[in-house]
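Hi P.,

Sorry for the delay on this. The queue was packed all week, but I finally got your sequence through. Input first:
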Amino acid sequence: MHTLHKKLFIALTALGIAGTAVAQTAAVQASEGRHGQAVSLEQRAAHKAERHAKRAERQAKHAAKLRAELKLTAQQEPAFAAFMAAGKPAGRQDARMGGERASLAALPAPQRMQQRIERQKQRTARMEARLTALTNLYAVLTPEQKQVLDSKAMRLGGKHRGQRGDHGGHRGERGAALQS
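Then the structure:
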């Protein structure tokens, strides 16, 4: 029985040492980038600027493609421009950004909830502005243009465009209906 205790003690000690080594490795890797290299603030800022530039380029291509598919007239262009401007995301000013996270965590629960409600009201106001712009655009379109816009409406203004209804490569009935 004494040898069993001894072996158990040795095994637990070895596990403790291994756990400490893993924790130290994780702490070192936390300060490194995604692929193991150290990332400076300047590199992060440059990468972020590059992502924003690529996103703006994709949005411009999307707007040009939609404009071409709708075959807009000169009279319809202002409504289309307002619609596209209303669809642009607002600057990220929520609690997840910058030093606001720490100050938000320091607030009592009712005040945190109040701030969440205020941010949701701002999001709702932006959505209502988008709806107004869409309604104004829709009012100046011909029936054929409305049909084109309706076919694109499911993909407008959301994250993960083109992936709705697609779960792990298997399209459900709704996903297949959207693709046709």
